[in-house]
Amino acid sequence: MTQVRFKRSARADLQAIKEHVHADNPRAAMRLIENLRIKALHLGEMPNVGRTRPELGVGLRSLAYGSYVLFYTVEADIVWIQRIIHGARDLGAVFDDEA
């Protein structure tokens, strides 16, 4: 099984998601964060399950979970979770800002 690691940007995304949802429903926030983490960890079993996203970055793949999209890369035996972003956001702008 491939290791799954979260980049600093993905950890920051999880924190922002948690804070945003927690304001309305603390329980839902905890469930959502846990489910996003579980979804990410499952990528260690099937790292190529997500679709390729060459328009957003070299080697970038994505996998949707509810309203959120996990963006990740696969390097040797590690899946790097790069970002976790709400699907309604302008993804091109998010990734252009990082370039």
General description of the model:
There is one protein chain. The chain is of the alpha+beta class and 99 residues long. The chain contains 3 helices and 5 strands; from the N terminus they run βααββββα. The chain has helices at residues 8-22, 26-42, 91-98; strands spanning 3-6, 51-52, 61-65, 68-75, 78-86. Strands 1-5-4-3-2 form a 5-stranded mixed sheet. Helix 1 runs antiparallel to helix 2.
Tell me the name of the CATH homologous superfamily: RelE-like
Structural class: alpha+beta
User: Radius of gyration from the CA trace?
Assistant: 13 Å
CATH architecture identity: 2-Layer Sandwich
Strand content: 25-35%
What is the spatial order of strands in the main beta sheet?
1-5-4-3-2
How far is the N terminus from the C terminus? 31 Å
Please report the first level of CATH classification, the CATH class. Answer: Alpha Beta
* Beta-strand segment tally: 5
What can be said about this structure in brief?
By secondary structure, the protein is of the alpha+beta class. 40% of the residues lie in helices and 28% in strands.
Secondary structure elements and their pairing?
Layout: E1 3-6, H1 8-22, H2 26-42, E2 51-52, E3 61-65, E4 68-75, E5 78-86, H3 91-98
Parallel strand pairs: 1-5
Antiparallel strand pairs: 2-3, 3-4, 4-5
